[in-house]
Amino acid sequence: MLTLVRGRQSHFDHLIAGLRAQVAFPEELIVAHMQDEPPAVPKDMPFAVRMVHVPGERLPLAKARNAAAQLASGEVLALLDVDCIPGPHFVRRASEVVAETEMGVFLPEVGYLPARREGWMNSATGMPDFGLIARSSQRHPAKPDLAGVSVARISGHRELWGLAFILHRQTWASVGGMDEHYIGYGGEETDFAQRLKQAGSGLFWLGGTVCYHQHHRVHVPPLQHFDAILENARRYRRKWGDWCMTYWLDQFEEMGLVTRNSIALTKVRAPTEDEIAQSLQGDDVRFS
Hints:
This is Glycosyltransferase. Belongs to the glycosyltransferase 2 family. With about 290 residues, the chain is of the alpha/beta class. It contains 9 helices and 12 strands. The protein has 2 domains: about 1-215, Spore Coat Polysaccharide Biosynthesis Protein SpsA, Chain A, CATH 3.90.550.10; about 225-280, no CATH class. The chain has helices at about 10-20, 60-70, 90-100, 130-135, 170-175, 190-200, 225-240, 245-255, 275-280; strands at about 1-5, 30-35, 50-55, 75-80, 85, 105-110, 140, 150-155, 165-170, 200-215, 260, 265.
């Protein structure tokens, strides 16, 4: 298991609790922390937890994922964002599916949780309340229902999203991990997916488990990452010949912040502090 952390101790606590509630424990949890001090971990962990510090004021997401993968000792790399609670069969399914298809990359179903100040733990057991979690979660309307599905091929590699994905360490190594030239928010996962496609690695939906995304307020569009998105979109365009993150770029253009054509992305102006503040969504918004 690999995860990245900057802040979000409560989310991390829930992720840890989810791993402690697995029907089969992971061999280890690798935590790449993008903050000075590592996150707090319970002392009585039933599996190894190892930390690696990845400094950088701007989010070094690609570098952090590479550092976590390099430190991992197992053959299965299951990457899960810190704001996720793995369902109790996540580790078991990750091990099973990688053993069956080593050159595959697998995306579990994600259930999005509403805001809940008291969290998702069962106070009596100290474990996640999976009954409440399952009843409260909602699948993204653009994603398929994987009930009754074991494994299903995905036609487009752009479905890959860093929130949760699973692959064999040799598959990761075959493309050299993530491109660390992508710094800050956006682009590194789509670039990684393109290189996986070139290497002949298939992309699959994985049934039999759900990862539950813990709520946090989101910006729509993510104006707080404006400059990083522009830089990374341009980097992707130079490398692959088309644009990624077009859903955000289109919204930036509608706001008069950028202009874009097939070859150039031009910054017209930066978003104002008021525009950034207004883009922050309320507790009722689960999806960005």
